Amino acid sequence: MRLDELPRSENVEDRRGVGFRVPGGGGGLGIGTVLVLGLVGYWLGIDPRLLIGGAEVLSGGDSSPQQSSADTQVGTPSDQMGQFVSAVLGSTETQWQKIFVRYGKTYEAPTLVMFSGATSSACGLAQSAMGPFYCPNDRKVYLDTSFFQDLERRFRGCDVGSKACQFSQAYVIAHEVGHHVQNLLGVIPKAHAMQQSMDKVNANRIQVRVELQADCLAGVWAYHAEETWKFIEPGDVEAAMQTSAAIGDDRLQRQAQGYVVPDAFTHGSSEQRTHWFTAGLTSGKVESCDTFATAQQ
Questions:
Q1: In whole angstroms, what is the distance from residue 80 CA to residue 73 CA?
Q2: pLDDT at 33
Q3: Cβ contact 89:173 at 8 Å
Q4: How far apart are CA 137 and CA 120, in angstroms?
Q5: Is 100 exposed, middle or buried (0-12, 13-18, 19+ CB in 10 A)?
Q6: The pTM is what?
């Protein structure tokens, strides 16, 4: 993956190394919630506290940590990882602005928050164990870049140390930006409203459709970015496919517990995730990402 021609985004908050405090000292999230959020770290995508039950159910009102903004750096970070994140985010801004114009809409770019360990969000506590997620409440993507090491080593999402891993990492960011696109188009609010009257199994099925659509939208970004900058190198797409398969619910469940429970899927199987990313990548059309109007989930 070549980064040299990709535009850099200024919509980055660099909170790496910035501390925070939880009001009330020993208050905040209970151990049970922390364990649940730890399990969420096995899945990539939107903060599930919003789609199932609402953020207040798990984070509990005033228990969110207080982040000091004094040391937060806003703009394009100067280090290698910061430059990479800024370049990928900048490319999504360019492409989604163009795509929205074609549909007579205005694209409002999200902010990406880079943090280490834990930080605050409008959806409650963000911590590395949760993996990357998008918070509709503040329209920000939260990313602890240590997830990229997990992607290589724990999830085997790409070959450790390979250059192609960069495109897999870009896919992760583009997936989260895909959730922002969904939010702007009203998909996330509608999905949340639908889930309120459903049992857990059917609510999960709605969430799977949301996640697969974000995979497809990531593919749409890659299609148009490649047309503009010719930034994809040999092995990149294969690495992204390997990543989408590695973080499928079926593979992760099998690794964690030895068997698969489809009714508990929240992001889709390896085959589904690969299918929908490919659909966006080969067509470049938002219309090809209507996971709600197809029999395939």
A1: 15
A2: 37
A3: yes
A4: 12
A5: middle
A6: 0.81
